[in-house]
Design goal:
The protein is of the alpha+beta class and 344 residues long. The protein has helices at 2-6, 10-34, 148-164, 167-179, 183-205, 213-234, 241-244, 246-268, 275-307, 311-342, and strands at residues 37-45, 48-58, 61-62, 66-68, 82-83, 87-95, 104-108, 117-122, 129-133, 139-141. The protein has 10 helices and 10 strands.
């Protein structure tokens, strides 16, 4: 591995180190700022509601958004939030005379952010209502019963957003793109990854299996390191197991990534009356985000190919840049691995 690094020009080695430390420093702040907020309202009986509001952390302070309940609720907003190590949370109990159907729930300040908030309302004797609020749609009127279209739309967008802000999942897919050059094998690997994480996403979300989150997150980082090493080894002319059977590798690690995807669904819950629709929508959203990312990477490569003077020049640049990107991806993932193991 050191021999490969020595053959990389000094400029590219410096660029790789900048990517490792620059992206590692930017990733936590960016992921926090783009994390969704969560508002849950659970009716405890006799018109009383237990409210929990969780907002993202932005450079050590709570994102300046606030949950506002319908006008007939005695306490419409919560108190000062407390930091739980990842986000800022507050909770309170309030009576809402006459119920909240037909009332307006809003997230004030959301229009000044780049994130969104998932609202979950669980009546004592009714179906769960789930709604995703964004910077362009910061409030909604509570319906008597949610439509299946609303459920599907909310969970589809939630799944798509989750994969697009999940930097570790995207780095795994990016590493697959660097490793596998055959279009047929690449399609097989992506398909296997999809099937695998769909299986564990459903099993974990339905609480059929349960594995603690920290070990899963650590192994996800390890899976990216594995692919980075495979990329570097393949540059030395040795066909690796991951190149001969890419579907096997992507399926195996896809099972772990599915457990990671399930974490957000476990946290926000599934609507009791529309569990299949919500699961399907979330998974389709994840796939849509994944395919959008792949299309963006391949599109950027095609544009670069067009501006290069020749195909040979493009291939030469790709040959030199691939080890650099592999070291950068592997370096970031190694830091994640150490951090996640330390967080057990």
């Amino acid at each position: 591995m050191l021999a490969v690094l020595k053959r990389i020009p000094e400029f590219f080695r410096i660029a790789a180190l900048m990517m490792v430390f620059g992206l590692q420093g930017a990733a936590p702040a960016l992921s926090h700022a783009l994390e969704p907020g969560f508002l849950t309202m659970e009716e405890t009986g006799s018109g009383t509601w237990r409210v929990f509001f969780r907002r993202p952390d932005v450079r050590g302070s709570p994102m300046p958004i606030e949950a506002r309940l319908p006008e007939n609720c005695a306490i419409r907003e919560g108190g000062e939030p407390a930091f739980d190590g990842w986000a800022w949370s507050t909770g309170w109990i309030t009576p809402c005379d006459g119920g909240i159907v037909g009332g307006e729930v809003a997230i004030t300040g959301l229009d000044m952010t780049r994130t969104d908030t998932l609202v979950r309302i669980q009546p004592a004797d009714g179906q769960m209502i789930t709604r995703r609020l964004t910077s362009g749609d910061i409030s909604f009127t509570v319906p008597a019963e949610p439509s299946i279209g609303q459920v599907f739309g909310s969970y589809f967008l939630l799944g798509m957003e989750h994969i697009l802000i999940g930097i570790d999942h995207l780095l795994f897919v990016f590493a697959l793109l660097l490793l596998i050059r055959s279009p047929g094998r690449l399609v097989g690997a992506v398909t296997a990854f999809t099937v695998a994480h769909s299986i564990t996403l459903a099993l974990a979300s339905l609480q059929i299996i349960h594995i603690p989150g920290p070990p899963v997150e650590a192994v996800i980082a390890l899976s990216i390191i594995f692919l980075s090493i495979e990329i570097l080894k393949s540059r030395q002319g040795e066909e690796r197991l991951s190149e001969r059977y890419p579907w096997l590798v992507s399926f195996s690690f896809g099972l772990l990534h599915g457990l990671g995807f399930a974490g957000v669904l476990t946290e926000i819950g599934l609507p009791q009356g529309d569990v299949p629709a919500a699961l399907l929508a979330f998974n389709v959203g994840v796939e849509a985000g994944q395919l959008a990312f792949i299309a963006a990477v391949l599109g950027a490569a095609m544009m670069l190919r067009r501006v290069m003077p020749s195909r040979g020049a493009f291939d030469g640049l790709l040959l030199r840049a691939t080890p650099v990107m592999a070291y950068a991806v592997g370096g970031i993932s190694t830091v994640w691995l150490v951090q996640r193991i330390g967080g057990f």
